[in-house]
Amino acid sequence: MTDKESNDSPWTDPRGEHEMFWVSLQPHLLSRGYRLRPRYDPEWIPSWTRPGAEPDFCCEDALQGGAKVLDGTRISDNMKVVFKPVAASSDELALSILLSSPKMRSDSRNCAAPILDLVDIPGNDERVLMVMPMLKDIYDIPFRRVGEVVEMVEQFLYCLQFLHENNIVHMDFCRYNLMMDGSRIIPKGWHFFNRYTHDGTLSSPRFEWNERWTVRPVQYYLIDFELSRQLQDTSTQVVGDWGQDRTVPEMSFDVPCDPFKVDVYQIGNAIKKLTIEYTGLRILDSLTENMTASDPLKRFTAHEAVQHFQKRKAKWSKQAMESRIWKVGTPFKKRFMIQYRGYTPRF
């Protein structure tokens, strides 16, 4: 008798239909050197159904995965990775491969998330799995010093310049596509779907992390090239309403606009929102105002944004970079505990 059969009530598979896609791929991924979480093993038995087990909300294998992406582990070195199925004929795949090529990666400005591997999907010639490193959302860990934000802004501005020099427009250079390498910030790692735990369980030790300033430099990455394209020349204009940021003034379904200037607005507005969320970032005001000008003709190009940033940065002192910043509304007591007692809250 199996564990499934020994339960008093019939065993019902709690996995959603979208998860069964990953369950069907598990043996193939294993043969290609990748291991999925226990939940996606075809022979999986929920850990909370075993005698004396903790309730499901305490168990890692109760955490559902996503339909669009799923995490896993590269067996050869235990590297955490993310799988994303994409159309084999898509611009997203073509651009991701291009940006991961040795020539493109040799440019230090290129912070597009690299493609580590491509895995076929058995029985489906129209789609393929992109394998990427598991990265951390930049907003999951609070910023603590001016220099931390400056380091991030610099990398994304250089990346924008690099993309535009290669006639590539991202079309969604916005908040949720801005990531970072969290390996030194969170040495114990984090769970992909329960991101403020180390192992996904409620019994996980207290979530520990280091301030960016103490482990710098931090490498930042741009993800999700689903809407991106490489244009024939910089004069190409487009129509539509795309990306997370729908406040871009000139986006229209009727009047063509310059997609390069849309990119500038999108990342400029993401930075601007950060300067509003935190105190102590006024040094970036002139940059963000010029990157988000309502008239695209008066808005910075990527190159102008980089030049402006470089000139301003040259005047900023080390002391200015080390200055503390705080989320608006952070109480004095909390600031004191963070600054002098080593308190590291998640928010």
Report on this model:
GO terms for molecular function: protein kinase activity. InterPro entries: Kinase-like_dom_sf, Tyr_kinase_AS. The longest helix has 20 residues. With 347 residues, this protein is α+β, with helices and mostly antiparallel strands. The protein has eleven helices and twelve strands. Helix 5 packs antiparallel against helix 7 and helix 5 packs antiparallel against helix 9. It folds into two domains: 110 residues, no CATH class; 206 residues, Transferase(Phosphotransferase), domain 1 (Orthogonal Bundle). The N terminus is likely disordered. The strands form four sheets. The protein has a five-stranded antiparallel sheet, covered by helices on one side. The chain has a three-stranded antiparallel sheet with strand order 6-8-9, with helices on one face. Strands 7-10 form a two-stranded antiparallel sheet. Helix content is 31%, strand content 14%.
